[in-house]
Design a protein that fits this description.
mainly alpha, about 80% helix, about 0% strand, flat
């Protein structure tokens, strides 16, 4: 009962935060204090729901919808810790976080216990999850960069582009997210491959190939930014391509195996 109560409260706060973010569109120099307060309330209730759903013990319930809920809890939590203007990302993230939480509460999938007695594998999962979350945020940020870049090249200023930060600031945040996400993803892949080499388990090996290809694409993106000054459409295209491959290889496989089949 407490799980559903805290979950419904989190969804309500996410909805209120979404309305607050939407109301800031077109407002010159928007004040985001109320938006941040509602987001904080939402992530606290969401965190309590996750703890209650995980049912701590020798193993945690790490099914598809549970992982999705955690993945969509992390971005608004991280955004509140940043000093940059993040109202645009919150506008996108809050409704998605509410939907992910609702899915974990009311939809069923196949059990996928995470054994806490294997610390190396648990660390691999946590690092990968955090890395993928940051890269997911970079993909969303790249979409916002595309919106602003499109408007600038066509000399059109809309309420949404006035609401978003300057393009140079958005690109700086984009590459900050990519860099940190790439670093965590690298550690996760190294730990994952080490675990596969030292364990008889092979259930996760199908994720290695798409993750490795996506890793190479993100490496090329960071190298292009560093040595060739990539920005705008070039940077966002590589970000979306790399994350799309990563999502298809990991989340797509888990969705098919745990939800569809």
């Amino acid at each position: 009962m407490l799980t559903y109560l805290s979950g419904c409260l989190a969804i309500a706060f996410y909805a209120a935060g979404s309305v607050a973010a939407f109301s800031l569109i077109g407002v010159p120099e928007p004040k985001a204090q109320r938006l941040r307060q509602l987001t904080l309330a939402a992530i606290l209730c969401h965190a309590l729901t996750i703890i209650l759903q995980l049912r701590p013990g020798d193993a945690l319930d790490f099914g598809f919808f549970m992982v999705t809920s955690i993945t969509f809890w992390l971005p608004p939590t991280i955004l509140l810790l940043l000093r940059e203007r993040v109202e645009g990302l919150l506008l996108v993230m809050l409704p998605l976080s509410a939907l992910a939480l609702a899915a974990s509460l009311w939809l069923e999938d196949s059990p996928a216990p995470l054994d806490l007695r294997e610390p190396e594998f648990v660390l691999h999962i946590l690092l990968s999850l955090l890395g993928y979350t940051l890269l997911f945020m970079s993909a969303l940020q790249s979409l916002l960069v595309l919106v602003v870049d499109y408007s600038m090249h066509r000399h059109r200023v809309s309420a949404l582009t006035r609401f978003l930060p300057p393009l140079i600031s958005m690109e700086a945040l984009l590459f900050k997210l990519v860099a940190f996400g790439f670093a965590l993803m690298t550690l996760g892949i190294v730990l994952g491959m080490w675990f596969l080499l030292t364990s008889s388990e092979s259930a996760w090996s199908e994720h290695i190939l798409p993750s490795s290809i996506a890793w190479l694409l993100f490496l090329c993106l960071l190298a292009g930014r560093r040595f060739l000054g990539w920005r705008g459409t070039m940077a966002t295209s590589w970000t979306l391509l790399a994350f799309g491959l990563l999502a298809a290889g990991y989340l797509g496989n888990r969705f098919l195996s745990e939800v569809v089949f």
